[in-house]
Amino acid sequence: MPEYHEPLLTDSRSYVSKDGDILPLELMVDPVQPRPDRTEYPMVRVPDSELEGPTIRLIRQSLAEQAIRSGKEELKDETLGVATALRLLHKETGFYARDNDEKNSMQAIVGRSESGFPTLRYLDEVEYRQRKAKTDDPIRALRSIARHFEDYAVQAHMEVGFSRLFTRTISDRPVNMNQKLSQNISSADISDDVPTRRTLTSIARLREIDLFVEEKGENPLGIHAGIDDLKGEALDNRIFELLDTMQLSGVMKLNERLIDEQNSRFSYWKDRLTEARMRSSIRGQVDQSLEKLNKLRPVILNQK
């Protein structure tokens, strides 16, 4: 396999930064991990109605009326709301949120987009509610939110790299695009190869969300509800369950879509950080995050 440049692998399975620093790959495979300070401040819960701009409210109302007309009024409002939010946010941003935290941040920002500088408005309102609740360090909430933005962008960068490595893997092996995934990829392939496991998990997650917004599946963003909570054989089985309903050619089309969506995701959160740096109280931290994103270099897979 020739070398090519997309996110960051070495033959020692390490992450290589632009400055030459080498970090264990497992630290970067899924960078959105709980941080010690992410829950140390008491965030004030804001009703969804206060986080929604007029666009979100109109589409939510329209879809709710459509559900009633189609005889699906038995759907719970919460479930309908999540599916509606995901559908709308995808239309506005070009990608699906990966979890509830990301969805809530996107919803809060998109809901303010009609008045300009939505990220600043979101941060202002969070700080206002923190001060109103008399928390010890209201700015800590803003720092945590900004770190979320950085994490989402780094994760998107990694997803693109793994997806392109997977594309190269498929192109370099004898496969039949008209057969199912399981007829071309084994459980051993998934377990032994990080890009393959990572990419197929991401494609299966995308399929889970598609089914949910089409009202054909459960909400994958709930706690212990989606593919991210599975490991080993259970993960393999879920991947094949979701993706063996189509030919390998269909899986690869989903992979192309995944690359497009994760590129959009990277750009979206980087733009949010660029806007957030206008807040002087967190500018230093945000500048460091932007510098880190600018230093992310493509991954190179070295073959002996």
Task: Write structural notes for this entry.
The chain has one domain (14-295). 60% of the residues lie in helices and 2% in strands. The protein has helices at residues 26-29, 48-51, 54-69, 77-93, 100-110, 118-132, 138-171, 187-192, 194-213, 232-243, 248-276, 283-295, and strands spanning 14-16, 22-24. The protein is elongated and about 60 Å long. Residues 1-52 and 72-78 have low confidence and may be disordered.
Helix/strand-derived class? mainly alpha
Question: What share of residues is helical?
Answer: 55-70%
Number of helices: 12
Query: Strands of the biggest beta sheet: in what spatial order?
Result: 1-2
Number of strands: 2
Low-confidence stretches: 1-52, 72-78
SSE order: EEHHHHHHHHHHHH
Our measurement of the CA-to-CA distance between the termini, rounded to an integer number of angstroms, reads 10 Å
- % residues in beta strands: under 5%
**What is the typical, i.e. mean, pLDDT?**
77
Shape: elongated
Summed up, the domain count is 1
Radius of gyration: 20 Å
Largest sheet: 2 strands, antiparallel
Question: Outline of this structure?
Answer:
By secondary structure, the protein is mostly helical. It has helices spanning 26-29, 48-51, 54-69, 77-93, 100-110, 118-132, 138-171, 187-192, 194-213, 232-243, 248-276, 283-295, and strands at residues 14-16, 22-24.
Question: What layout of secondary structure does this protein have?
Answer:
Blueprint: E1 14-16, E2 22-24, H1 26-29, H2 48-51, H3 54-69, H4 77-93, H5 100-110, H6 118-132, H7 138-171, H8 187-192, H9 194-213, H10 232-243, H11 248-276, H12 283-295
Antiparallel strand pairs: 1-2
Helix pairs in contact: 3-4, 4-5, 6-7, 7-9, 7-11, 7-12, 9-10, 9-11, 11-12
